[in-house]
């Protein structure tokens, strides 16, 4: 690999996992607006991923969509081969793909627990391990993990999800120290309540109760989370690493 720490920002490639909708799609659109090369990963939401891709292409970005089960080393390797073929190995990796589960811990099945850890934690591990060698070789890169406020504070009835996101936070802090000498930053964005499909399981009264707890008086928007991810990816953000930054409207301070 050639060492090119001075590659212009607009010539860099960003890969966002779970980018077919919600926060992931907003992140893809934000980078596309700056004309970076954008790789949109999805698992099953083919049409939604294509819709996000069309939106990004309309802003002049070069876009590629890829599908993979991030719990599978084989599928992650196959994804990398496709990216190599298209010359789109990421300088910026956004580990956004995740699943949530709401319910008492006593009711969580072993399969649900394994899915939570597999997609949220193992997927982040496999993706990072696959693509960080390229960043290390060029002495430059950005790894940004999308965590959750519950990974910081924990949440009743979301023990499995809180555990997985807490693991992401620890992963972020430790890897940041490991990769800092190589010019690669590792940070996590831990949003509070954001108006996405993940909130679809709550009824209107429950959503209103949550909003009343938030000093800002509202849910966050996906584009607000995307702006923070974009900021952390900038070349001038190179001294920020190992941080868990939580945009949450003052809910947790």
TrEMBL record:
Keyword Oxidoreductase belongs to the record: yes
Keyword Cytoplasm set for record: no
Domain of life: Bacteria
Gene source species: Paenibacillus naphthalenovorans
One GO BP annotation of this record: monocarboxylic acid metabolic process
Protein name stated in the entry: 3-ketoacyl-ACP reductase
PROSITE patterns in the cross-refs: ADH_SHORT
One Pfam family from the record: adh_short_C2
SMART domains for the chain: PKS_KR
Domain Ketoreductase span(s) in chain numbering: 12-192
Database matches in Gene3D superfamilies: NAD(P)-binding Rossmann-like Domain
GO molecular function terms noted in the UniProt entry: oxidoreductase activity
InterPro entries per UniProt: KR_dom (IPR057326), NAD(P)-bd_dom_sf (IPR036291), Sc_DH/Rdtase_CS (IPR020904), SDR (IPR050259), SDR_fam (IPR002347)
């Amino acid at each position: 690999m050639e060492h090119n720490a001075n590659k212009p920002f607009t010539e860099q490639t960003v890969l966002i996992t779970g980018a077919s909708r919600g926060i992931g799609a907003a992140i893809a659109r934000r980078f596309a607006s700056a004309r970076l090369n954008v790789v949109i990963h999805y698992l099953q939401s083919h049409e939604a991923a294509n819709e996000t891709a069309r939106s990004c292409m309309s802003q002049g970005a070069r876009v590629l969509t890829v599908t993979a089960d991030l719990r599978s080393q084989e599928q992650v390797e196959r994804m990398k081969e496709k990216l190599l073929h298209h010359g789109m190995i990421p300088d910026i990796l956004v580990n956004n793909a995740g699943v949530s589960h709401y319910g008492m811990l006593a009711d969580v099945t072993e399969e649900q627990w394994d899915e939570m850890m597999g997609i949220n934690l193992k997927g982040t591990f496999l993706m990072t391990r696959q693509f960080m060698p390229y960043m290390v070789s060029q002495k430059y890169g950005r790894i940004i993990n999308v965590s959750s406020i519950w990974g910081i504070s924990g949440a009743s009835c979301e023990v499995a999800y809180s555990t997985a996101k807490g693991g992401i936070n620890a992963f972020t802090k430790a890897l940041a120290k490991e990769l800092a000498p190589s010019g690669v930053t590792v940070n996590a964005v831990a949003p509070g309540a954001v108006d996405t499909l993940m909130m679809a399981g709550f009824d209107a009264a429950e959503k209103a109760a949550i909003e009343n707890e938030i000093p800002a008086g509202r849910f966050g928007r996906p584009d607000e989370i995307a702006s923070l991810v974009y900021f952390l990816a900038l070349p001038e953000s190179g001294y920020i690493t190992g941080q868990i930054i939580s945009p949450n409207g003052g809910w947790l301070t």
